[in-house]
Amino acid sequence: MDFINLKESDYLGKGRERACYVHPEDNDKVIKVVYKSSENLNQNKLEYNYLNFLEKEKVPFSHLSKCFGSLQTNLGEGYIFKRIKDFDGKTSKSFKYMVLNGVLNPNLEIKLLNELKNYLLKNSIIFVDIALSNVFCQEVSENNYKLIITDGIGGKRTGFKSKLYLYSKLFRKYKVIKQLKRLDKRYLKVVNDGIQGKTRLSKSE
User: Fold this and answer.
1) Confidence of residue 186 (pLDDT cuts 50, 70, 90)
2) CATH fold of 3-82, please?
3) Domain segments of the chain: what residues?
4) Contacts of 15 (CB under 8 A, 6+ apart)
5) Which of 83, 91, 103, 143 is the most exposed place for a label (fewest CB within 10 A)?
6) In the chain, at which residue ranges do the beta strands (DSSP E only) sit?
């Protein structure tokens, strides 16, 4: 297995269990390393297995960050993922950042969100950790955007439910619909928390 030495200058940010670093040998990829193993959520492994399952099901990765497998680092085992960048080469901002700061027109936000929801529903993809910080807003060309999920798909932890997500189509569809409703609520909460507050909702009606 390959070995990579990660430095502080490679650091991008962290979530509940994992820290994210730019791959020092490939600027188009990131490496996610567990920094809080006490929670024992196995997010890297769970996500890798789920993405492999989707790939075998021939699901298009148009709104997902692809995983390229694992490697060893000086900080422990890491998993390599595609880095989400805008057309100008800059790292894309999270959808949460874009909504909170009113970067996009509210109608465009809703359009992008609906596109993502339709993609998840059509392909029965479980977005279990529906935080908007887990969704990046990629500017694929000037003023042309799409949403890409970078974290939080599949199960939250290994166990019976995570297996049901893979092997029970009925349970998977039920879970997808349930999470999409939660995603709508989370979006509205972020809108209300944003710099333009509730006035932004009236503009989109």
Assistant:
1) very high
2) Phosphorylase Kinase; domain 1 (3.30.200)
3) 3-82, 93-204
4) 133, 134, 151
5) 143
6) 3-4, 11-14, 18-22, 29-34, 67-73, 76-82, 93-94, 135-141, 144-149
Residue 18 is predicted with a pLDDT of 87
> Strand (E) positions, 128-173?
135-141, 144-149
Global model pTM greater than 0.70: yes
Angstrom distance (rounded) from CA 46 to CA 156: 8
Q: Please report the pLDDT score of residue 203 as a whole number.
A: 45
Q: Rounded distance, CA 128 to CA 176, Å?
A: 8
Residue whose pair of structure tokens reads 């650091």 in the numeric block: 11
Q: What is the rounded CA–CA span in Å between residue 117 and residue 122?
A: 8
Instruction: Write the single-letter amino acid at 87.
Output: F
Signed CA dihedral, 150, 153, 156, 157: sign only? negative
Beta-carbon contacts of 194 under 8 Å, excluding residues fewer than 6 positions away, are 99, 100, 101, 102, 200
Q: What is the residue type of 103?
A: V
